[in-house]
Amino acid sequence: MKRLQKLLKRFELHSLGKWILLASLIGFVAGLGAIAFDVLGQFVVRYSLTEFAGYQPLDAAGEYNRFEHRSDFFSPWMIVVVMAVGGLLSGTLVYAFAPEAEGAGTDAAIDAFHNKRGKIRARIPFIKTLASAITLGTGGSGGREGPIALIGAGFGSWLATRLKLSNRERRVLLAAGMGAGIGAIFRAPLAGAVFAGEILYSDADLEADVIVPAATASVIAYSVYVQSVPVQSRFIPLFGADLEHTFVSPLQLPAYVVLAVVLFVVGAVYVKTLFASQAAFGRLPIIPHLRPAIGATLAGIFGVSLYHWFDRDLNLLGSLGTGYGVLQIALTTADQLGIACVLLVAMAKILTTALTIGSGGSGGVFGPSMVIGGCTGAAVGLTLQRFWPELFSEPEAFAVVGMAGFFSGIARAPISTIIMVRALTGDYGLLLPTMLVSTLTFMFSQHFRLYRNQPATRMESMAHRGDFIVDVLEGLIVGDLYQKDRKLILIPEGMTLDSIVHRLAYTNQDYFPVVDADQKMVGIFSDDDVRAYLYDDTLWNLAVARDIMVDNFLYLTPEDDLNTALRRFTSHNLDELPVLDPERPGVFLGMLRRKETIAAYNQRLMELKQSSED
């Protein structure tokens, strides 16, 4: 680590070069972390669900099964037992060693960025990897993005701390690691880079500083991760290369607006159910180590019960695990599932995810969101096809758009989600309706936020506390505020102290500009400067203004911004500063008070906050 510090200093890599070098290191580690997480998760599936329940969850078309195995038996209720054991192991691991690793990892990374100076304990990525692999591998309903995002973010934070970088630099590397993990595990480097900057805020704001480092880290992580996948499936999108839906007619747009409204309602239900589950499990009078086991057991019972209630339809078990297998069918042959099935999977996925993640189980919420949104979209598409088969001949198109629109709204990340879904599906024919639906759900879902630690904008982030004082003050100038019409006493430089004392007795003025015979300012003094002479009246007729004034004084011009003014106020602890004409040196124009500067800043800040709320 010391050698790396010396390298950075030796080659003066202070800007872009430094970020590319450090981001490349983060990307390499994030890529290895993605491989380890993928292998470990599939290993757990093979030797838990498959071994004891005879159940091999369906995969997406582009996924590579590292431990393929076919069982000659199937015991549905053993799934519940496996999930209960998995929840117990995961909960014990998390709450014994790193309680911060519970739940969704992305929200923990967002919290560290804004509220913890970018610091993540070094053990958290390791605990998160193990706990999430166990949770998802044993059938818990969750996603892969949270764990892998926290792995990359954790290494970025650790590297910045070891190199003794600033808090700002640590935050940038944390976000770069988060984007790298996402870009690798979903084979979507561009989406990972944009996600890292966009997911940090709930309004239409972006952390622009992280984009280039995140892009570099994401490309490296993706390149490392795909080396673990066979060549024949290395560059295939996660949901296959055969999704080529088209936007047929503008007449379909009203139907996509309806889809946006449906996704908004389902998204609100999802967020409320998830948070209600977290609150309910938090009130249980038991040690937290046991809560994930209870949540996983309940989720398993519900998922297996659905399977039995509806003619042993294996597709309904998509409510457990990642659910990517049933989503794959919804994206390719939705009519094979039917309206009732996709709706059941979507609604069941909400409940099983709330039970798994809400109880403290370790996993992400992006994956379930894809399943919920895709199945909801498929249900809308199949319904429309039933009434207007000529216009809506591809209900699967609504599933693709639903994936993006659903997560865009509740995660407050429309741009990266659009890019992500395009990369996951390889389907670029639906860009227009995807943009429409994602924009609408983003607008509708302002009060339903999946990640609680997202501030609305940079202005409200602790990471940028102080930045906007400068930004706001730089937008205001002295010429707008200084007192032009105030009748101020100007003191000739030859005026005796006796005359000055008598003038001070009849004014509330605190600072007195001193002018020469040409009425040009040559100095200034305060009433405190005069008080030093009050007890020695023998000097009153001897001393003049030139003797008590400060000739090397600070001043402002009307064109100076208020940031400059505030720096000069604070550098010498002054309450007022003279304003001089820049075109005519020494010509006095007026005085600017410190309290007026602060009042102007506060007023401008309130205006900006009000405009952002509107």
Describe the structure.
By secondary structure, the chain is mostly helical. Helices cover 59% and strands 4% of the residues. The chain is built from 24 helices and five strands. The chain has helices at residues 2-10, 16-53, 76-97, 105-115, 123-137, 145-162, 167-185, 189-198, 211-226, 231-234, 253-282, 291-309, 324-332, 339-358, 366-387, 395-411, 414-425, 431-444, 467-474, 497-504, 527-531, 545-548, 562-571, 594-613, and strands at residues 491-492, 511-515, 521-526, 576-580, 588-593. The protein has a three-stranded mixed beta sheet with strand order 1-2-3. The chain has a two-stranded antiparallel ribbon with strand order 4-5. The chain is elongated, with a radius of gyration of 32 Å. The mean pLDDT is 86. Keywords: CBS domain, Chloride, Chloride channel, Ion channel, Ion transport, Membrane, Transmembrane, Transmembrane helix, Transport. This is H(+)/Cl(-) exchange transporter ClcA.
Write the layout of secondary structure elements.
Blueprint: H1 2-10, H2 16-53, H3 76-97, H4 105-115, H5 123-137, H6 145-162, H7 167-185, H8 189-198, H9 211-226, H10 231-234, H11 253-282, H12 291-309, H13 324-332, H14 339-358, H15 366-387, H16 395-411, H17 414-425, H18 431-444, H19 467-474, E1 491-492, H20 497-504, E2 511-515, E3 521-526, H21 527-531, H22 545-548, H23 562-571, E4 576-580, E5 588-593, H24 594-613
